[in-house]
Amino acid sequence: MGNGSVMAAWFAGTHERHPDVAIYTSSNTSGNWSYPKLVADGVVNDTLRYPCWNPVLFKNNRDEVVLFYKVGPSPSTWWGMYSIMDVNKEAWSKSHRLPEGILGPIKNKPIQVGDELVLSPSSVESEEGAIWKSHVEISADGGATWTKSHIPSEEGVKTIQPTLLQLPNGNIKALLRSNQDVIMESVSSDSGLTWSMASTTSVPNPNSGIDAVSLKKGGYLMVYNPGVSGEDWSNGREKLHLAYSVDGNEWADVLILEDHKEGEYSYPAIIQDDQGIIHISYTYDRSKIKYIKLQVDQQ
Fold first, then answer.
1. How far from 3 is each of 30, 88, 104, 215, 223, CA to CA, in Å?
2. Rounded to 5 degrees, what angle do the CA atoms 121, 123, 124 make?
3. 19 touches 49 (CB < 8 A)
4. DSSP per residue over 156-197, as a string?
5. Contact status, residue 159 vs residue 153, Cβ threshold 8 Å
């Protein structure tokens, strides 16, 4: 957020899909995290309340912190919401609903290209998982209006929850969670307007969330589960690795974040701040959030 402070956001409540699930934040300004603050809920009126989902924080080029999140009974029926924080007051604006058909970033942060172009990685899911399709929501005016660009995939291939990288040649690469036991990728050469057919990478993944970041001095970092999927959603999520790539194509593990016989360490988020420090957070066995700060040596 500036001044060396970091903010985390999450959804919490009785259990996923329960109407009492709301969005909370906490800030770390001097090595300690503040008490969680409720910043958004799904209250419609005195008798109707919906659960909240998947908060995503985004610091834009205007030094605004935007909180995107979802409200609704399920991932197939939810809608996108957002609120903007006054950094000086650490106060959030009234929540606003995104335009019809625009969900906002589903799991991972948007990227900003130039002064006004914002690319927001998104996806849709049907109730029983028959449909998983990734797309990118594009704003050419800093978030005032939005259009959608779909990421195509072969029949039977399902992808969701993209994360976006800016390549040295100006192209944009989307890394995708998929049902193929590997991370998939797609590339745009026209600032997100069109995308190549999703293709497999060599990076294993058990159909679990990933995140990646383009480093300020070149290269890329990605946080992912390297396991194999199983009958249960948690299978393959007992390990969590950090990988590095010089070009965004070939990846090599550089740090093992978690390595257990069982448990779930998943849904990572990763950013690099203005001082070059890497910040990583992820779900720790579905009960806590773990935060890691790393100094990257880039000469």
1. 10, 11, 27, 20, 25
2. 160
3. yes
4. T--EEEEEEEE-TTS-EEEEEEESSSEEEEEEESSTTSS-PP
5. yes
| Continuous H helices in the chain | none
Q: Is 189 helix (H, G, I), strand (E, B) or coil?
A: coil
Placement of tokens 């990734």 in the chain? 134
How far CA 9 is from CA of 57, 61, 101, 239, 269, in Å, comes to 7, 20, 24, 23, 10
| pLDDT, tens digit (0-9, with 9 covering 90-100), for 50-63 | 999 999 999 998 88
Strands 65-71 and 6-12: unpaired
285 versus 88: which is more confidently predicted? 285
Distance in angstroms (rounded) separating the CA atoms of residues 55 and 40: 10
CA distance 52 to 72: 7
Dist. CA 78–CA 95, nearest whole Å: 15
Nearest to 54 by CA among 260, 209, 271: 209
Is the full-model pTM beyond 0.90? yes
Percent of the chain predicted with pLDDT > 70 = 98
Q: Name the residue ranges covered by the structural domains of the chain.
A: 1-97
Retrieve residue 234's tokens: 């948690």
Contacts of 32 by beta carbon, 8 Å cutoff, 6+ apart: none
Q: What is the CA radius of gyration of the chain?
A: 18
Write down the residue that tokens 């990572």 correspond to: 268
CA distance 122 to 74: 16
Tokens, residue 144: 């005032």
In the predicted model, what is the mean pLDDT of residues 132-149? 97
Distance CA 70, CA 82 (A): 8
Cα separations in angstroms, 48 against 20, 72, 210, 262: 11, 11, 33, 38
Rounded Cα distance, 202 and 20, in Å: 40
The rounded Cα 91 to chain-centroid distance in angstroms is 23
